[in-house]
Amino acid sequence: MSEPDYIVIRPASDLPDQVPPRLDGWWYNRADFPEALPGEGIDAIARYGGYVAVATGRFEVRDSDGAVAEVFEIRP
Fold first, then answer.
1. What residues form DSSP beta bridges with 74?
2. pLDDT in tens, 28-37
3. With a threshold of 0.85, does the pTM exceed it?
4. What are the tens digits of pLDDT across the range 7-17?
5. Is the Cα dihedral 69, 70, 71, 76 positive or negative?
6. Residue 1 lies in a domain
7. 44 lies in a domain?
8. Structural domain tally of the chain?
9. Contact (Cβ atoms closer than 8 angstroms) between residue 42 and residue 71
10. How far is CA 72 from each of CA 14, 15, 39, rounded to the nearest angstrom?
11. Residue 75 above 60 pLDDT?
12. Could you tell me if residue 16 is inside a domain?
């Protein structure tokens, strides 16, 4: 199975600090994050704005166009 072209950022349920609203649910092109390239699997990370998001192996489908993104979770 190939990796989707997008990642979507979500906060971890145990994140102690509030995530800026601009990051929660934001979709990004996977190619913009070298750490998130296919083949990195569950250990892949994306860094943005001082936060670290870790690949979860879960996926979301965008209602507007059916695009698929791997969920990257901001973790403490």
1. 11, 53
2. 888 777 665 5
3. no
4. 898 988 887 67
5. negative
6. no
7. yes
8. 1
9. no
10. 14, 13, 15
11. yes
12. yes
Give the closest residue to 8 by CA, choosing from 73, 63, 66. Answer: 73
| CB 9 within 8 Å of CB 74 | yes
- Rg of the chain over CA atoms, in angstroms? 12
Q: Could you tell me the CA-to-CA distances from 69 to 15, 17, 25, 54, 72 in Å, in that order? A: 21, 24, 11, 13, 9
Q: Which domain holds residue 64?
A: 6-74
Tell me whether residue 32 is in a domain: yes
- In this structure, the number of other CB atoms found within 10 A of the CB of residue 71 comes to 16
Burial (0-12, 13-18, 19+ Cβ within 10 Å), 54: middle
Question: How far apart, in whole angstroms, are the C-alpha atoms of residue 40 and residue 16?
Answer: 27
Other beta carbons within 10 angstroms of residue 37's beta carbon come to 11
